[in-house]
Write a structure and sequence with these properties.
It contains 26 helices and 8 strands. The protein has about 575 residues and is mainly α. Strand 7 and strand 8 form a beta hairpin.
Length: about 575
């Protein structure tokens, strides 16, 4: 066998196996010639040896399409995750499975990259130290000569592929960098919306050029041939190694360009257009949501991206993932105020999402403080009767009531209802939501008769306007069931409404949604107080654990469920 290192530019007889260390006899034809690291098929001519070779094996990182016309292409991809973990644990004895998985994920299970990781860990680097250095200083980690006499470095190969793409079209490089910022979750080309887009000019950040989503769809297959990404099943997969290291590789100007392009991609992936039904919207959010979650809120640079990021976080609130999203919305709100004025419509929109997240997470003090600021700004921009002002005012009712400002909450609800009824009508969704919130304020104030009467009326109206499974309707039903229970005279009605609402929430929101757990807790607590038993011990445990995780051990329902379990001799 002859082994040729293509980058040395000459035929170098070399065989890594002991069996073939001898030089071939004169006139002997080698059974196999290996040409290692050939850049492209156009470089093959200078390595041809006439008819001296029986078989030729070429290794190359070039696109498969360049070789398919005259050679049999055998793709060599990354290992699977378990192979990568096994490699790291075998070669670094102190490494646990979880840490090995973290490194393998960051490196995309790429064998060469894993060999670099092995070398760093064996020199005493911690796992967190390695991952931080990989993200912030990739040249220091992957820029040294490769292990096992690998020519050059992995960073050199990455930059070679990127520069090759840049020679084709510079905007493709910006698009690749942006996709890497949103990766490694694949970008679905089919989810690109038909809305008009704008892309940053190649030379400046201020000039923008019209862009159609069709251009992005055409660009994705081109990017899939660059060596740093692939395109299959209408999805662009950027190499996890490039996604992990891209921020540390780019110069500051390149980072700004990549961030602008990432904004363009996020706006293109916005699934909200022409989707009024929340269930359909949820289905359209599912394939694109990972891209929004991996994007750093403090890297948003455009008003359009600020708006769609807020919508993604609001959708997360719909899913009940308030704790996951809350810190992100706080960062996005601060970022918006850094970029634009505090009265900017997009910034106020993010504030509305943050107010909702605070309320959902029972951070009522923060909600009251933020709500007062947002309401004042809304009044200055839209006036006291503006639709957005009235929505913001309505959103303050429950936080105020739960902070002990019950009379203020009821009064604010009544004022808002009068204004919304005048502007929108008595059966508008916003008006009905405010009526539902007034019922909650009345219940908190101990006015159970009023709370029951208001709750029954608004539930019937909401079911007629929105349907039985709308989240607003389910929330009203839960609150009415609570009012039934606390009134002391509607126990059977409370049990029936809790049970009916729970079935709908399990179907619409899912078993693990915090609102579903809250209703399950209400059902078992009412049953315990009425009959001295739990309707379902198993369901009670699930609800208790979910509420603990979401709201902590000081939550009122958590405490009451724990007391019920103790009274029944149950332990956890």
């Amino acid at each position: 066998m002859h082994w040729i290192r293509a980058r040395e530019g000459k035929l170098a007889h070399e065989n890594p196996t002991a069996e073939a260390e001898r030089a071939p006899d004169v006139g002997e034809k080698p059974a196999l010639v290996v040409i290692d690291g050939l850049r492209s098929w156009t470089d093959y001519d200078r390595f041809q040896g006439g008819d001296t070779a029986g078989h030729v094996l070429i290794t190359s990182s070039g696109p498969a399409a360049e070789w398919g016309g005259w050679a049999e292409v055998v793709p060599v991809g990354p290992w699977d995750r378990q192979e990568a973990i096994d490699y790291l644990r075998t070669n670094v004895g102190s490494l646990g499975t979880e840490d090995a998985g973290r490194i393998a994920a960051a490196l995309g299970n790429l064998p060469l990259a894993l060999a670099y990781a092995e070398a760093w860990l064996k020199r005493g680097c911690t796992v967190d130290g390695f991952l931080n250095a990989l993200r912030d200083r990739p040249r220091a980690v992957l820029g040294a000569a490769g292990p096992d006499r690998y020519p050059g470095s992995l960073i050199a190969r990455i930059e070679e592929a990127r520069n090759s793409l840049a020679s084709t079209d510079r905007w493709m490089v910006h698009l690749l960098d942006a996709a890497a910022l949103l990766g490694p979750t694949p970008l679905p080309a089919r989810s690109l919306g038909p809305r008009p887009l704008y892309r940053p000019d190649d030379d400046t950040l201020s000039t923008e050029i019209a862009l159609h989503p069709a251009e992005l769809s055409k660009a994705f297959p081109v990017l899939g041939k660059c060596g740093l990404s692939t395109f299959d099943d209408a999805r662009l997969h950027v190499s996890p190694v490039y996604c992990t290291t891209v921020r540390g590789l780019l110069a500051e100007e390149e980072k700004r360009q990549a961030a602008r392009w990432a904004d363009v991609l996020l706006v293109a992936l916005d699934p909200r257009d022409s989707v009024a039904d929340r269930r359909r919207a949820r289905e359209r959010w599912q394939p694109v949501l990972p891209s929004f979650l991996v994007c750093h809120p403090h890297e948003v640079v455009t008003r359009e991206a600020l708006t769609v990021m807020a919508a993604a976080y609001d959708h997360m609130s719909d899913l009940g993932r308030w704790q996951t999203v809350l810190a992100r919305v706080e960062v996005l709100y601060r970022r918006g105020m850094e970029l634009f004025t505090q009265d900017d419509a997009a910034v106020l929109g993010v504030g509305d999402v943050l107010l909702r997240a605070y309320t959902s997470a029972h951070r009522y003090a923060d909600a009251v403080k933020l709500g007062a600021v947002l309401r004042e700004r809304r009044i200055s921009v839209c006036g006291s009767m503006g639709i957005d002002t009235l929505r913001c005012t309505s959103a303050m009712i429950i936080p105020l009531g739960n902070r002990g400002h019950v009379a203020e909450a009821v009064e604010l609800a009544q004022e808002t209802l009068v204004a919304q009824t005048t502007r929108l009508g008595a059966d508008h969704q916003d008006t009905l939501l405010t009526k539902s919130r007034r019922a909650v304020a009345e219940r908190v104030a101990g006015c159970w008769r009023d709370a029951v009467a208001t709750g029954e009326a608004v539930l019937e109206a909401q079911q007629h306007v929105l349907g039985r499974t709308h989240p607003d309707v389910l929330s009203t039903a839960y609150e009415l069931a609570c009012a039934y229970h606390e009134s002391g005279v509607h126990t059977k009605d409370a049990l029936d409404l809790f049970a009916e609402t729970l079935l709908l929430q399990e179907r619409v929101l899912g078993d693990d949604h915090p609102a579903t757990a809250r209703t399950a807790a209400g059902l078992d607590l009412v049953h315990f107080e009425a009959y001295g038993t739990l309707q379902s011990a198993e369901r009670c445990w699930v609800a208790l654990e979910r509420l603990r995780q979401e709201f902590g051990v000081r939550d009122r329902d958590v405490y009451r469920l724990e007391q019920a379990c103790q009274a029944l001799g149950m332990s956890w």
